[in-house]
Amino acid sequence: MEHKDIDWSNLDFSYRKTNKRYVADYKDGAWNEGALVEDDTITMSECAGVLQYAQTVFEGLKAYTTEDGRIVTFRPDLNAERLEASAKRLEMPVFPKDRFIKAVDEVVGANREFVPPYGSGATLYIRPYMFGISPVIGVSPARDYQFRVFSTPVGPYFKGGAKPITIKVSDFDRAAPHGTGNIKAGLNYAMSLHAIVTAHNEGYDENMYLDPGTRTKVEETGGANFLFVTKDNKIVTPKSDSILPSITRRSLVYVAKEYLGLEVEERPVYLSEVGDFVECGLCGTAAVISPVGKIVDHGRDICMASGMDDMGPVTKELYNTLTGIQMGRIDAPEGWIHEIKN
Ligand SMILES: *Cc1c(COP(=O)(O)O)cnc(C)c1O
User: Fold this and answer.
1) How many separate domains does the chain show?
2) How many Å lie between the centroid of ligand 1 and the Cα of residue 225?
3) Do 212 and 116 share a domain, yes or no?
4) Residue 247: CB within 6 Å of ligand 1?
5) Domain that residue 132 falls in
């Protein structure tokens, strides 16, 4: 397959239309067969549930080329399961897991020329999502839904090296106790927009959100989970019911234990103990791990021992091992790498 004439290393994270996308409709209580389509626009009622009451959930994963030239996705079964949990929480129908995986395969297969070559650092970002499409004016779940998958090529997350970032402890919350923080819903992001614009205006790269109940414990950023490293090389990651269960974080925890022989603690993490850690990273599909050098808590600087120039050594080893597994340079656990054969 010929590649598109794209300067892969200079792509940013923005939408670019590719050849085909997948659409399935839920009507009269059942999903139709679904199909790949060319049209990248959606026509719907002005009163659609998604437009009035934000009934929408989504996923994010990527397709990329391995060292031996296969086109693969990483653990798409977990994205299917997480979308199912998200849909149930917003009273939406479940899109079956086998069909989710097949739809993603079809979209990647139809857009092969947009899958960046091995070594470019770029990937084909895949966005599955579902939303209420039928009219809703009295507050209730929609009757009809649409499930879609589109893809767009995105550039390497770390252009010119993984520079540690500075984040602030936010005065806003991204979730409510017993709310929707643990599902991938668009509404969580709508809520975080003012907080992130504020943080950027103040010169910070990201927000650290605290637990909305007591505001004493670390939760996550707007779109990535935290991993910390202790002085004696233990991995610590916050455990909370209002954190989104990152697939990258769960994979890194496995890699830490099974590949690197590190001890891992998943437990509540207090803001007051963050200064005891020596490394801090943010985990998500886009960056895998992005290093945090400094956390600012209302004028108090909490500086990681790993500093502002480079990833810390443990973060780096986690990063190298997981990206090695993803790219086929290191043997993957059973079922982690899903080859696109169509
Ligand atoms: C998607 C997301 C993450 C990262 O999850 P991955 O599965 O690793 O990409 C973390 N936090 C939030 C709030 C998210 O929406």
Assistant:
1) 2
2) 7
3) no
4) yes
5) 8-154
